[in-house]
Amino acid sequence: MSKIFSNLGLAMRAGKLVTGDEIVLKSVRSSEARLVIVAKDASANTHKKFRDKCRTYKVPLIIGFDREMLGSSVGKPERVVLALTDQGFADMIRKEIVKTSEVEYIE
Asked: Where in this chain does the record put each Ribosomal protein eL8/eL30/eS12/Gadd45 domain (predicted)?
């Protein structure tokens, strides 16, 4: 699982990851987002909003981990939602996600 977080940090340093509700929604709408990750401890409204948007725009969505883990992996305080904007990083994360039980929902 630490490989997932180190890859998220690497994507952040490479400028291939965006965080924050509005910025992630904008990247989903503009088809820049390749993978969206929402913290499992986010509100039900946030889960529904990103589930619906990602389904509409056909962007893969993962709900899992907690906000502290996501934030610390990208060198920021708590983060509820992240979007990878590079297909290579998205593929690396998705391959590692299959191996973990921390994830509640994958689409």
From this structure: 3-90
> How many structural domains is the chain composed of?
1
Distance between CA atoms of residues 82 and 103, nearest Å:
15
Q: Look up residue 40 and give its two tokens.
A: 């499992």
Tens-place pLDDT, residues 1-59: 688 999 999 999 999 999 999 999 999 999 999 999 999 999 999 999 999 999 999 99
Give the residue among 74, 69, 63 at the shortest CA–CA distance from 18. Answer: 74
Domain coverage including residue 91: 2-106
Q: Where are the alpha helices (DSSP H) in 30-76?
A: 44-57, 67-73
Q: What is the pTM of this model?
A: 0.91
84-101: buried (b, 16+ CB within 10 Å) or exposed (e) per residue?
bbbeebbebbbebbeeee
